[in-house]
Amino acid sequence: MGAIRRGRGQTGADCRGIYYCTFAGLQAENARLQFFLAVLLFCSYGHAMQTYLEQLDSRCARLGVDLRDICRAEGIAATTLARWRKGQAHPRQETAEALFARLDKMAAPPATDMQEAI
């Protein structure tokens, strides 16, 4: 770190335990810190926490299932889904968990006779 230095003061006396700061060193540390924060922000930008609706949409897209069908099967009105998409309302945790469970059921391959016997 260039901002904090250990050593002699202006008088030339031995100041082993005293630390002093230079203005140029503080500017350099500030620039390093700003660069680090910019890199951190850039790297975390694409990994932001997703909403329940974004998670449901991405899982439906991966599995090739329509979210409207999942909502219909779970008894959620089409107008509710429309309000979620417009940002006027947001799904509650219990609702999202029920939709994820229904999505897993609908996307699961059908059981064979052997699996049913087990």
Write up this protein.
This protein is mostly helical and 118 residues long. The protein has two domains: 4-45; 52-108. Helix content is 61%, strand content 5%. The protein has six helices and two strands, in the order ββαααααα. A two-stranded antiparallel ribbon has the order 1-2. α3 crosses α5 (93-107). The relative contact order is 0.09. The model has no long low-confidence stretch (mean pLDDT 76).
Order of helices and strands: EEHHHHHH
Residue-averaged pLDDT: 76
Total count of strands? 2
**Class from helix and strand fractions:** mainly alpha
**Count of discrete domains:** 2
If helices are DSSP runs of H or I spanning 4 or more residues, what is the number of helices? 6
Widest β-sheet, arrangement of strands: 1-2
